[in-house]
Design brief:
The chain is an all-alpha fold and 148 residues long. It has helices at residues 8-30, 37-59, 69-81, 95-116, 121-146. The N and C termini lie far apart (47 Å).
Length: 148
């Protein structure tokens, strides 16, 4: 099946690809600061998950190999590790943190694209849940990276 380049599915896949690229940029920046290796490992896992999500959306397969649950424990762990955030967080404390904030913003755009996609609601719901939790995780990683 061929679809037009401006189809909502192509727009969504392009946004997910862009998110993956920004995560790669953040991962590269993290290698130049004295930050724990765990953050780069998390990003690498997310990048692999994004390829699975894109494959799921493109092929319209029955089962998704990743879930939001895989991110929940990371979000909870970081929330307990970091001091509470009060007020607005202005990106730009260091290059790696700023890149993670860009990835978070792109992730939010991906979520908006997913919601507007013309697919059966049940088939895209797990993807939307994953992307929603991912944006929370990226925010926390960006805040954590300021401390590196």
């Amino acid at each position: 099946m061929q679809i037009a380049k401006d189809h909502s599915l192509m727009e969504c896949l392009g946004s997910l690809d862009e998110l993956n690229s920004f995560l790669g940029d953040a991962k590269a920046a993290l290698k130049y600061i004295s930050c724990d290796i765990k953050t780069t490992d998390i990003i690498e896992k997310i990048q692999k998950d994004l390829y699975l999500l894109m494959g799921f959306l493109a092929a319209q397969t029955e089962e998704l190999a990743v879930s939001a649950e895989s991110l929940n424990s990371l979000v909870y762990s970081l929330k307990t590790e970091l001091p509470p955030v009060s007020g607005f967080v202005v990106p730009g404390e260091n290059p790696a943190s700023a890149k993670l904030h860009i990835a978070r913003a792109v992730c939010r755009r991906c979520e908006r694209r997913l919601v507007s996609m013309e697919l059966v609601k049940e088939s895209k719901e797990p993807v939307i849940e994953y992307i929603n939790r991912l944006s929370d995780l990226l925010f926390l990683l960006a805040v954590k990276t300021v401390k590196c």
